[in-house]
Amino acid sequence: MKLTTKKKLAREFLLLTLSLVLGVIVFLSIYPYNAFKRHQSDNLSTEITDKTKVADSLIKTYHLKCNKQKWFYDQFKEEYDLTDTSINTSDKWWRIFEKYKNMDTLLYRWNHKWDKEQINTIVKIGFELPKKLNEFIIKYSISDTDLINKNSAKKIYEENKRLKTDEVAARNKIVDSKEQLSIGIWALIISAFVLFVLRYLFYAIKWSIKTLRQKSE
After folding, report:
1. ∠ at Cα 141 (139, 147), nearest 5°?
2. Structural domain contains residue 195
3. Residue 5 within any structural domain of the chain
4. Cα(142)–Cα(92) distance, rounded to whole angstroms?
5. Fewest CB within 10 angstroms: 127, 180, 194, 209, which?
6. Spatial CA neighbour of 39 closest among 162, 171, 138
7. What is the CB neighbour count within 10 angstroms for residue 173?
8. CA dist., res. 147 & res. 150, Å (int)
9. Tens-of-pLDDT digits for all 217 residues of the chain?
10. Could you tell me which of 47, 48, 34 has the C-alpha nearest to residue 170?
11. How far is it, in rounded angstroms, from Cα 202 to Cα 88?
12. How many C-beta atoms lie closer than 10 Å to residue 93's C-beta?
């Protein structure tokens, strides 16, 4: 076999090997890419969890007070039909009793305004003395701090929605093994196409132009 032929075969073999190497490199490069995306997704998940704990802690007292106010309203609903009245929600009902955080006002109501049936209902609920009712109203009235914490928690929950979208996007970008193999094969095919088909096409075009430029003898 001539040396020229051997060199041509050696060049083609090296180019074929290069195509294989490029395919393998692309295939293997997906591993660190996946590791990065998993790390990104895990970090976002951890951040969401931490922020949720903070938000839950901030809004806990607000929810507790709202639940107690609803419980208080529901006790009266069992005794009175409040459906078609102007105080048909726990918020509206509580706003009435919030006026009695002042002990003197509550005592006046207890002793001079509320009838025996109303007093019996309040006692039946569990407030035998005006002082107990007053303490309950003070304890479970929503403060400015509760509202500030509630708004802060709301902002955190909204931020978590955006972070959750980013987390899902990062997780969806992780390449599974089937896709990874397919990408590696396509990288091999494309590199082989460029190194062989396009190269020979380039040679053919170059030869054709050179031939057309030659002068007839």
Report:
1. 120
2. yes
3. no
4. 13
5. 209
6. 171
7. 14
8. 5
9. 666 666 766 777 777 787 888 888 888 888 998 999 999 999 999 999 999 999 999 999 999 999 999 998 888 887 777 666 667 788 888 888 888 888 888 888 888 888 888 888 888 888 888 899 999 999 999 999 999 999 999 999 999 999 999 999 999 998 888 888 888 888 888 888 777 777 777 777 777 777 767 765 5
10. 34
11. 84
12. 20
> What was the pLDDT predicted at 207?
74
What domain range includes position 136? 19-211
User: pLDDT at position 216, please?
Assistant: 57
The DSSP-derived string for 83-114 is TTSTT-SHHHHHHHHHGGGSHHHHHHIIIIIS
180 lies in a domain? Answer: yes
Packed helices 144-172 and 3-77: angle between N→C axes, nearest 10 degrees: 150
In a domain, residue 10? The reply is no
Phi-psi region of 158 (alpha: psi -120 to 50; beta: other; left: phi over 0): alpha
- pLDDT at position 154 is 96
* Tally of domains in the chain: 1
Q: How many other C-beta atoms can be found within 10 angstroms of the C-beta atom of residue 169?
A: 13
Place of tokens 């102007």: 86
Count the Cβ atoms, other than its own, within 10 Å of residue 122. 20
